[in-house]
Design a protein that fits this description.
With about 170 residues, the protein is mainly alpha-helical. The relative contact order is 0.16. It has a single domain (about 1-165), classed as Rhomboid-like (Rhomboid-like fold, Up-down Bundle). Helices cover about 65% and strands about 0% of the residues. The longest helix is centred in the middle third of the chain and has 22 residues, at about 70-90.
């Protein structure tokens, strides 16, 4: 996760040094050519404040999710990015551009909260409950309350994380 965050900070540094040239990798809704930006959009941010807001939750939730194996973690991340990005592409307002790792943050939250129940593993249930208590206020971010914030990315990221918990369930243990 430290490597992932280092990449995000490096990319934002490049973006700032090149007059926000990487912002073009954000998702513009319902333009077929923009489908190729679904993955890059999760790695570009619109300023250091935006990146700072995503960094600590991504580090913590990503680290916890990765504890059950890197292969599984990367598969979960891919599902979250796809569902979040496609959801944004379909539902975001016209003439908007969406980017950032917050869809991944919401997805990891959803994944960790439901994973234990899906896998029927008491340790993971307890982790999910703790994550729910510590980060439950994130759920307000799925509501369209703040202009300029992609509630669509948050909502579909959350749904992608829940879907990933079911897709990559393990036998109870």
């Amino acid at each position: 996760m430290v490597g992932w965050l280092a990449l995000l900070w490096l990319l934002e540094g490049i973006d700032q040094a090149t007059n926000n040239s990487l912002d073009t990798f954000g998702i513009s809704p319902r333009e077929f050519g923009e489908l190729r930006d679904i993955f890059p959009a999760a790695f570009v941010h619109f300023g250091f404040d935006h990146l700072t807001a995503n960094s600590m939750p991504l580090l913590i939730l990503g680290f916890i999710a990765a504890l059950s194996g890197l292969r599984r973690f990367f598969a979960v991340a891919v599902v979250i990015i796809l569902v979040s990005g496609l959801g944004v592409w379909i539902t975001a307002p016209e003439h908007s551009v969406t980017g950032g790792a917050s869809g991944v943050v919401f997805g990891l939250f959803g994944y960790l909260v439901v994973r234990g129940f899906v896998d029927r593993r008491i340790g993971d249930v307890l982790v999910g409950l703790l994550i729910g208590v510590l980060y439950g206020s994130l759920l307000w971010g799925v509501l369209p309350t703040t202009p300029g914030i992609s509630w669509q990315g948050h909502l579909f990221g959350l749904l992608g994380g829940i879907a990933a918990a079911f897709m990559f369930r393990r036998a109870p243990g």
